[in-house]
Amino acid sequence: MGDHPLIEQVQRTGFPNMAAQPEHAGIDYFGDEILDGDDIVEYDGEIILKDNLERFLTEVMEFEFKNA
Question: For residue 49, how many other CB atoms are within 10 A of its CB?
Fold first, then answer.
């Protein structure tokens, strides 16, 4: 019986290159990791990941999103 497919892959190709992962570029307002290439928004000295912008607007700025 053969090894698990992941074991066979590691035996063939070696362990993944950890250096190939994106560089850490900081932490946003909510404590989420920012990686090189992430879209960010800057507001009043704060850095917010674009993915967290709606959260920032509702939780911090108290914006209310509604349907017309």
Answer: 20
pTM: 0.64
Question: How far is the C-alpha of 58 from the C-alpha of 19, rounded, in Å?
Answer: 37
CB 41 within 8 A of CB 61: no
In a domain, 27, yes or no: yes
For residue 35 the two structure tokens come to 């990686």
Instruction: Supply the range of the domain harboring residue 35.
Output: 22-63
For the stretch 7-59, pLDDT in tens is 787 788 877 666 667 788 899 999 999 999 999 999 999 999 999 999 999 99
Please tell me the distance from the alpha carbon of residue 52 to that of residue 46, in angstroms, as a whole number. Answer: 12
